Amino acid sequence: MVSIREAAEFLGVAAQTLRRWEREGKLIPDERTPGGRRRYDLARLRPDRFHAPEAARRTIAYARVSSHDQKDELERQKQLLELYCARQGWTFEVIADMGSGMNYHKRGLKRLLDDVVAGRIGRLVITHQDRLLRFGAELVFAICEAKSVEVVILNQGEDPTFEEDLAKDVLEIVAVFSARLYGSRSRKNQTLLDGVKQAVAAAQS
């Protein structure tokens, strides 16, 4: 148990803020000394609890495929996530995206990140790590950890669509960098892209 001053320093707020939170019923001291001084348990002090009550924090299941021709795979992911969450007895919502794992601006992903940062999500469920992002998933997981969001990954093995999605992501990377080097409409750009497409097709055959 620590004093109000130590608790305020731990949370990065003023002691007066803790007194106000007590008046508003947001944070009640764990106990008081015989002299009436407030005492707080550091193990229970978490800043994100003041953004949303714990009971209101939702479980979100996130599914993604790279393109419209993978609609069947998207449905398979959604059904798998729904079945798993239902079996756990969780109240949940499924967010689904169609777009490259290199694209950080997908509508569903942006909504997911906004809700995580705002403290509205308590649990994130995905089928594979790469369903979130091709590169940068670890950063999202770090944000989830900072916001006390539990991350559940159903399958730690290789994603069955890994090679197909990776090929599309490679093409996207090459398209971006070649456009910067040669211009999006240049002959060199198109030649390079055609060569990469042929190499990818040969590797998949």
Detail the topology: elements first, then pairings.
Layout lengths: L3 H8 L3 H9 L7 E2 L5 E2 L18 E8 L5 H18 L3 E7 L8 H11 L3 E6 L10 H10 L3 E4 L8 H21 L4 H18 L1
Parallel strand pairs: 3-4, 3-5, 5-6
Antiparallel strand pairs: 1-2
- Class of secondary structure makeup: alpha/beta
Distance N to C terminus? 65 Å
CATH topology of the largest domain: Rossmann fold
Count of runs of 4 or more consecutive helical residues:
7
> What is the molecular shape?
elongated
Strand content: 5-15%
Widest sheet: strand ordering:
4-3-5-6
List SSEs in N-to-C order.
HHEEEHEHEHEHH
Helix content: 40-55%
Tally of strands: 6
Query: What is the radius of gyration?
Result: 23 Å
**Main pleated sheet:** 4 strands, parallel
CATH class membership of the largest domain: Alpha Beta
Oligomerization category of the chains in this entry? single chain
Q: In the CATH hierarchy, what is the architecture of the largest domain at level 2?
A: 3-Layer(aba) Sandwich
**CATH evolutionary superfamily of the largest domain:** Resolvase, N-terminal catalytic domain
Mean pLDDT: 79
Taken together, the total number of domains comes to 3
Low-confidence stretches: none
Task: Explain what the structure shows.
The chain has three domains: 4-45, Multidrug-efflux Transporter Regulator, Chain: A, Domain 2 (Orthogonal Bundle), CATH 1.10.1660; 54-153, Rossmann fold (3-Layer(aba) Sandwich), CATH 3.40.50.1390; 162-204, Orthogonal Bundle (Helix Hairpins), CATH 1.10.287. The chain contains seven helices and six strands; from the N terminus they run H-H-E-E-E-H-E-H-E-H-E-H-H. It has helices at residues 4-11, 15-23, 71-88, 107-117, 137-146, 162-182, 187-204; strands at residues 31-32, 38-39, 58-65, 92-98, 121-126, 150-153. The strands form two sheets. A four-stranded parallel β-sheet has the order 4-3-5-6, sandwiched between helices. A two-stranded antiparallel sheet has the order 1-2. The longest helix has 21 residues, at 162-182. It is elongated. The model has no long low-confidence stretch (mean pLDDT 79).
